Amino acid sequence: MTRKQKQALLSYLGAYDGPLDGIWGDKSRQATIDFQRAYMDTVDGIFGEATEKRILEVVASGEKPRVQIAAASDWWHAVKYFSRWEFRCPCGRCGGFPVEPEERLVRLADMVRQHFDAPATVSSGVRCQAHNDELPGSVKNSYHLRGKAMDFCVRGVSGATLLAYVKQLPVHYAYQIGNSDFVHMDVA
Hints:
The chain is globular and about 50 Å long. The chain is an alpha+beta fold. It has 6 helices and 4 strands; from the N terminus they run ααααβαβαββ. The chain has helices at 3-12, 26-39, 49-61, 103-116, 129-134, 159-166; strands at 120-124, 149-154, 173-176, 183-186.
C-alpha cells in the first residue's frame, strides 16, 4: 500500500485532514495514532502490516468511523450529536475537509437534534469546489464551500416542520429541499 493510499484511508475514516500527497509527515503520523487509539490495542504511530490489515477490515465493515482528529478544534468535544466526519466532502478527491465546518453551524445542528430528540442525517456538509460543481442546482459561491452550510433531515420530522423550527434559529438562510424532508441551513 502506498503512502497516498494510507492517507486516503485515514482521511476516509476521519483521522487525517491533510492533502493526499504521499508525504508522510506529522499529520500522517498523528492520524495513524488516532486510528490506532480508536480501533487497535497497540498504539505506536507506525502504519505497519497490523495497522494496514485493521484499517482495511474497518473500511470493509462499513461501520461509521469513530475517529476524531486530535488537531481538530476543541469545540468538537462539546458537540453532543454529530461528529466531524458527518460533515466531510464525499468526493474522495479532496481529503474530505477542504475547509472545516463552521462551529456555529454545527452547534445549531446540535440544538435542532436535541429539540426533536431524534437522529439526524447530514446529506451534505463541507464541499470542495469540484464536488460542488458536479451537483445539479448548486451555485458557484455555495456556503458549503466555506463550511457554513449543511443539508440534513431528522428522523420522523417532516421537512416543513424541520424548516419551521430552523427558521426560528439565528441562521442566515434556510429552505426545504424540494418536497423532501431535508432542509438546507447556512450561517453567515
